[in-house]
């Protein structure tokens, strides 16, 4: 009887561990609401909810900025500008 219980618990733990690795490398398994809150995109389902592909850490739009041409005068966010490409920068409009 103890052997059957041990096997059942082991199988359940293996299923949980396997389902936690359902998402591709670099994509987290998160609750659907948390994924939306972080500005991520759902890329399929997993054990906890959805495989959530989040944007870059210093995304321009995440800071309320817009990618604009480098010749425009504006308040610039340097780190966030890296996500805009070589010929653009991240502009934040101050009112």
From TrEMBL:
The terms under GO molecular function for this entry are: metalloendopeptidase inhibitor activity
What is this protein called in UniProt? Answer: Carboxypeptidase inhibitor
What start and end residues bound the annotated signal peptide?
A: 1-19
Is Phosphoprotein there in the keyword field? no
For this protein, the record's Gene3D superfamilies field holds: Anthopleurin-A
Q: Does the keyword Signal apply?
A: yes
| Transmembrane annotation, as ranges | none
Q: What species is given as this protein's source?
A: Rhipicephalus appendiculatus
Keywords of this protein's UniProt record, alphabetized?
Signal
UniProt xrefs under InterPro entries: Carboxypeptidase_inhibitor_I68, Myo_ane_neurotoxin_sf
């Amino acid at each position: 009887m103890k052997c059957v219980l041990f096997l059942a618990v082991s199988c359940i733990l293996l299923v949980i561990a396997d389902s936690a690795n359902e998402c591709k490398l670099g994509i987290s398994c998160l609750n659907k609401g948390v994924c939306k809150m972080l500005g991520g995109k759902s890329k399929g389902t997993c054990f906890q909810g959805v495989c959530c592909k989040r944007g870059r850490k210093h995304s321009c739009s995440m800071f309320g900025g817009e990618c604009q041409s480098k010749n425009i005068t504006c308040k610039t966010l340097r780190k966030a500008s890296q996500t805009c490409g070589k010929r653009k920068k991240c502009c934040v409009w101050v009112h």
